[in-house]
């Protein structure tokens, strides 16, 4: 039988199960049998201000003796669970931990056992991430925004593919843009795939971030894979459909792409040979490659539109959907930050923040090009061409009349 007393500020509150050993604040002695550890579960919860939530504190192995278990929150989001005195535990023993939330915010609940070494409270087990929101309806709205921007970004790849297929031409479509896009989404796919599927890399993540929950989900793997396939289709179209004279990947693009790819290859060589480097570090670098590429990939297409004084090869619906996705992505971030009083999280996710801001910035420039700077340029070119043909036909007709009269 396990003996338990709940202790608060060194004072016994109540006896929960059977006789207990006397607790002495000074000179507390125990002996241990086995390698017991405590686990708080679940490791992550979403709560609302005013909720009372019960966690489970579970023992993994048998131990003999007594320990005092205290609890701590990294931010004042609620009333701490009462301290416990545990004596002579068996595998599977568990105790309820009640947390009453009083403020919104995000905090980590941790446990610590005294004396140390008798029962382990490892950072990878004895923790729970507590997220306390102000209003659950705001979370519902943020989830809706999440689905909207995800669908918008998914659909945004299709208009350009259809546009090229209908024109049977890739003239006006920047090959630099599509090259950068392919490398970026390939890097992002490997990053998410590694953190989602490869067990050894997940272990490296938890060693480096023990009191953390890995938030990479299956959809985070599927989206870059889908984007990669769509980009590959566009590359195939570039080989089979009409191209403008001299249309190719530029030298600066080849140099930048080569440097980024080479850096990833060097990382693959260094990780097995340098002890301080992990495969997780290489995956992080791949995510930074995606962010770098997002910063520069739109520039070639902007220049191509400027050079041709036309956006005819660049489908505007791709831009509009991308703009919607970036805008709603940022709105979701700010809604969640306000609801959880966690504004640092906005800056703590530079990839998502950067992708949203960059998408909005460059898409705005594309919209200005299409609807303001080069509006109706193609129609005017067609009208000019048609007028030239009419004049040419008229000249030919007059020439034929002159020949007839002369005869």
Describe the structure.
The relative contact order is 0.10. With 407 residues, the chain is an alpha+beta fold. The chain contains twelve helices and eleven strands. The longest helix is centred in the C-terminal third of the chain and has 30 residues. It is elongated and about 110 Å long. 54% of the residues lie in helices and 18% in strands. Strands 2-1-8-6-10-11-4 form a seven-stranded mixed β-sheet, with no helix packed on it.
The total of helices stands at 12
End-to-end gap: 126 Å
> Largest sheet, order of strands side by side?
2-1-8-6-10-11-4
Number of strands: 11
- The global form is elongated
Structural class: alpha+beta
Strand and helix order: EEEEEEEEEEEHHHHHHHHHHHH
Taken as a percent bin, the fraction of beta residues is 15-25%
**Would you tell me the overall average pLDDT?**
83
**Rg over CA atoms:** 32 Å
Structure keywords:
407 residues, alpha+beta, 4-stranded antiparallel β-sheet, 54% helix, elongated
Annotate the secondary structure layout.
Blueprint: E1 3-8, E2 11-17, E3 38-41, E4 44-48, E5 52-59, E6 63-73, E7 78-79, E8 83-89, E9 94-101, E10 105-114, E11 127-133, H1 136-155, H2 158-167, H3 175-197, H4 199-208, H5 218-240, H6 251-273, H7 279-296, H8 298-308, H9 316-339, H10 344-348, H11 350-373, H12 377-406
Parallel strand pairs: 4-11
Antiparallel strand pairs: 1-2, 1-8, 3-5, 5-9, 6-8, 6-10, 7-9, 10-11
